Protein: Chaperone SurA
Amino acid sequence: MKKLLACVLAAAVLSGTAPLLSAPAMAQVQPIDGIAAVVDEGVILKSELDRAVAIILAQYAGRDGQLPPRDVLEKQVLERLVLSKLQVARAQETGVRVTDQEVDQAIGGIAAQNRVSVEQLRQQLAREGTSYNDFRTSIRDELLIQRLRQRFAQSRVTVSEAEVDAALAAQANSGAQFHLAHILVALPEGATPEQIATAQKKAEGVKALIDKGEMDFAAAAVRYSDSPNALEGGDLGWRSIDEIPNAFAELMRNMSAGQVTAPIRGPSGFQLLKLVETRDASQAGPSMVTQYQARHILIRVDDTTSDAQAKAKADTLRARLAGGADFAELAKESSQDPSSRAKGGELGWFTRDEFGPDFGAAVAALQPGQVSDSVHTQAGYHVIKLEGTRQADVGDQNRRAQVQETIGRRKLEDEWNRYLREMRGEAFVDVRVGKAAEATAPATPAPAPANGG
Structure:
């Protein structure tokens, strides 16, 4: 439990603002606290940076040699904090909102994953010296960033049926999936020839270190990569051929596990790609899933209806159903879901999480013919009646949906990274720690490592 909590909290620090040092450590930091960076209208405190760095050091305990020097590590972590602050500010500026109820739900999910109650989670945080209010703030910021990214995806990323067809055809010819890692030596927009030459020299120097066996790929990524996933060793996870840019796909087909490419120039800078391993995903058989047929009545929470009022109305409707009211007629009369109201709340056949995890968990807990108590989701409060279940083969449907998702994820990754670079470049960021304490745009690549760095 403690290890899992540490991972959750570390992610929150690196993407948000949660301060996670113990009370004695905080007491040591506070007297010398100052401003690490000014980010537009906000600031990142030196204590925030110190706490975030402390989390990384704790995660790498016993593996300190894989981390870059302290000043380089601080620069990497500070850049993450800057990007997080910019994303949160942009989310708030564009009207993205997260309610207290949604934060409570997220924390409840974290507690459930750790198999503890929320109160036990709060006690565990206190024992580790973490303020519960700060933890809530970090979770809220994470949700804001997630929703900003979702809104961005909806407005900027589209996947056509022709693209899905082409990707499925490519998969039929090659069912391989590739586990990849990368090291990025970033270039700013409009890089000068000198900056390009310096970045290329650095990438070549890193490649030489790896080839000589003086540093493994993951450690080199932590130390030298400018990618947001540098501190995770540059791991990109498993990718199918349709998730890999065309410029790299042919290379992957001709590489063996463990091989590292020479520096490749891409839109973000120079990359080193490592093929960690491959697997064959072409032999997919039937994909049997449980499908549910249900009706529901939805009461929304909005500007005119509070959370408590919506729940009270849903509870009243549940009581009427218990008293013998017809579900379909009551749905036509009271449901606020325009897509199902006229059909008496009928939702048709669907898989468990098709309408979200909270709705799915409630449906899965019902027996055919049973009606739920009021169920809270992001949409509001539902009363659900399960009509029946069945087993269905959705292999082809799933494969098509998965391909569409992977193409969309690849496009989103490219567009989102470009969006973050634009956001970072337009922001006023005044770094107050380290040797480069100056108003800065995105940092230019450091010189190539000399004699193994």
Remarks:
- The two ends are 38 Å apart (CA to CA).
- DSSP finds 15 helices and twelve strands in the chain.
- The domain at 175-283+398-440 is CATH 3.10.50.40 (Chitinase A; domain 3).
- The chain has three domains: 2-152, 175-283+398-440, 288-393.
